[in-house]
Specification:
Layout lengths: L1 H15 L1 H36 L3 E6 L16 H13 L3 E7 L1 H11 L4 H5 L9 E6 L5 H8 L5 E6 H44 L1 H9 L4 H41 L8 H30 L3
Antiparallel strand pairs: 1-3, 1-4, 2-3
Helix pairs in contact: 1-9, 2-7, 2-9, 2-10, 7-9, 7-10, 9-10
């Protein structure tokens, strides 16, 4: 009988405040979707960093006739200079492996890496990319010692550390994550305010019923329970809508990002499901706690 009464009170509250309930559901859905998107981007960055950490290399590009570096003097690197550089690299304690890549191999790898951008590939001809040494380090953090040792060496045009490129790219992803979480925080604040107003309006409309329940000896918990569950149900519905938005976010944002940008690894559905569960639970808890605090602070029932 008590369960039936509580469910009846919940339905009455939701029906009487239908407009505010719908607004609350929409606000919670947007907030949780943005919150989940921020978590997905965070997982994407972490997974990509873990994937690429052991694959980071230092590229030492050698002189060519087209080089703008004055050290090269508009001349190709000589065989002797190439052998000397390779010997120096192999003796360095920071270096794990040294691989020489000629112009043809560099152009082939370039075409494979940017196969998805045919216009970019067509504008680059074989020979535009100079030959180089691709150096794998024992510890990617020690690239500065290798770079400083190779710069201004005879036959060296430039030294590029892939870690710096990755840092800039991941900084952009971190910026997107912060933006999504910031907007989500604003939406959460709006959701809390809507929950408070909805609960206060619902309690005011049912002040006669709650007064009668107080007279017959009902406990505060029993009186407050329908209002708290109304907020929790609205949060649950909003969380379910947010899960649909997160699936679209995974398809349209995360997967497309991983497909278009080869620096990003693919994010599995298990992570998405976990983020959806966390978002739904957070939405329910947010609305339930907001309802409880509103009743304790503003309503003496």
């Amino acid at each position: 009988m008590r369960v039936q009464f509580v469910l009846q009170e919940i339905w009455i509250g939701l029906r009487r405040n239908m407009t505010m309930t719908i607004s609350l559901v929409i606000t919670v859905a947007i907030a949780m979707a943005l919150f989940g998107t921020g978590l997905l981007l965070r997982q994407q960055v972490s997974a990509s960093k873990s994937y690429w950490y052991d694959k980071i290399e230092v590229s030492i590009f050698l002189c060519a006739k087209t080089s703008s570096n004055p050290v090269c003097q508009k001349q190709d690197v000589t065989d002797q200079q190439r052998q000397t550089l390779k010997s120096q690299l192999e003796k360095m304690p920071q270096v794990s492996q040294v691989q020489y890549e000629n112009k043809q191999q560099a152009y082939t790898r370039f075409k494979d890496r940017f196969a998805g951008s045919p216009g970019f590939v067509e504008s680059t001809r074989e020979g535009d990319i100079p030959d180089s040494f691709r150096v794998k380090l024992k510890n990617p953090e020690e690239y500065k010692a290798v770079a400083q040792a190779m710069l201004n060496q005879p036959g060296v045009d430039s030294v590029i550390n892939e870690q710096e490129i990755l840092k800039r790219f991941f900084r952009i992803l971190n910026g997107l994550q912060v933006a999504a979480l910031t907007i989500a925080l604003i939406q959460v604040i709006a959701a809390v305010m809507l929950v408070g107003n909805t609960v206060r309006l619902s309690a005011f409309n049912r002040r006669r019923e709650t007064g009668i329940m107080r007279l017959v000896g009902a406990s505060n918990t029993y009186i407050q329970l329908p209002f708290i569950l109304e907020g929790a149900i609205a949060g649950l519905i909003g969380g379910l809508f947010a899960s649909v938005l997160l699936i679209f976010s995974k398809k349209l944002l995360v997967d497309r990002l991983a497909g278009d940008v080869q620096l990003v690894s693919q994010l599995g559905w298990s992570v998405v499901i976990l983020v959806i569960i966390v978002s739904i639970c957070f939405g329910v808890l947010l609305c339930a706690v907001s309802s409880f605090l509103t009743l304790r602070r503003y309503l003496r029932i």
